[in-house]
Please model this.
Amino acid sequence: MILEGKLGHIIVERNALSHLKEEVKRLNPFKVCVVTDRNVGKIWFEEVSKKIGLGEKVEKFEIENGEKGKSLSTAKRLWKKLIEEKYTRKSLMLALGGGVVGDVTGFVASTFMRGIYFAQIPTTLLAQVDSSIGGKNGINFHGKNMIGTFYQPSFTIVDTKFIETLPEDEFLNGMAEVIKYGIICDRKFFDFIEENVEVLRKREAKVLQDVIEKCVKMKVDIVSRDEREEGLRRILNFGHTFGHSIERLSNYRIKHGFAVSIGMVLACKVAEKITGFEQTRDVIELLKKMGLPTLTKINLYRIVEEMEKDKKAWYGRTALVLPEEIGKVSVLEVEREKILDALKNGV
Ligand SMILES: NC(=O)c1ccc[n+]([C@@H]2O[C@H](COP(=O)([O-])OP(=O)(O)OC[C@H]3O[C@@H](n4cnc5c(N)ncnc54)[C@H](O)[C@@H]3O)[C@@H](O)[C@H]2O)c1
Model:
């Protein structure tokens, strides 16, 4: 599948990397800086570099693995390298990695010389179905994602073969976002995932490919209609307001997708009281079947209190994405007392 539009060229295929050379050629970059982390660099850099085929014009820049890599110090090191190695405005920064690499690379590409070419090769399931699409980037600074910009890549190459080397918990991390799409906008997709849980967990190539394509399409559709998150795009935050709070309170020991999984269940519980949502059981069952958590030991009062710091609250009140039924959600501001009341009997 190839999509073209204001989010750049997006190629989702089993062998999408075969398009890399022509996509780079189209930009005709002066130099190419491939940003990756140690894990991904070790496994995939050589192949990607060969596919670009520009010899010494291609350089590797490795950042720290995990959330620590998304820091101001990484951004500074990158800016410095670009200046020292005489990168120009006609150079390309290529993110090869998960959401961490994508976010920091996009941020640096958007700010260096007021913006140079940027492209993405997402290598985690989460990055393929979510973070590489839509143009949001950022670094952590006195809080997660506090500094960042909107900046669309010229192209995004989603090659499902990267998923083969992904550790199991990283795979499940992305699956939480996959299930999210079903709940927020497509009942049939939710049912499809339910019917294919076992096959998906085995990473069967064809089904996985179909699922990733479907998610990319849904994200492109939503973001194209609301690039700056003024309205519709907010529905992508389903489970995330609770989720971010859980991540923070666990000191990021609970992974994003796992926290979102628990967050989606909490949002469903609140929705029961506010929108009359009746399918919390179905959501919990699917998450459990997939191997995702649905409960947390963290105190609910603390989670709700922490949520008030969320930067997605526009006027200081907590905005929640609440399902009305599977496949349909709305964004509502809900008072703390109502949230706590809805959750008081547990999940
Ligand atoms: N910009 C957005 O719209 C957006 C959306 C969602 C999440 N995010 C951000 O994404 C980040 C999380 O991204 P993530 O879950 O991809 O985590 P990540 O980038 O930290 O990658 C997870 C781990 O998997 C390893 N890895 C990546 N690809 C691999 C592969 N193919 N084989 C083996 N190992 C591999 C990495 O080295 C890392 O250790 C967070 O910082 C989050 O804020 C951004």
In short: The first strand starts at residue 2 and ends at 3. The pocket of nicotinamide-adenine-dinucleotide is lined by residues 37, 39-40, 43, 65-67, 70, 97-101, 103, 123-124, 126-127, 130-131, 134, 136-137, 145, 162, 165-166, 170, 173, 256 (CB under 6 Å).
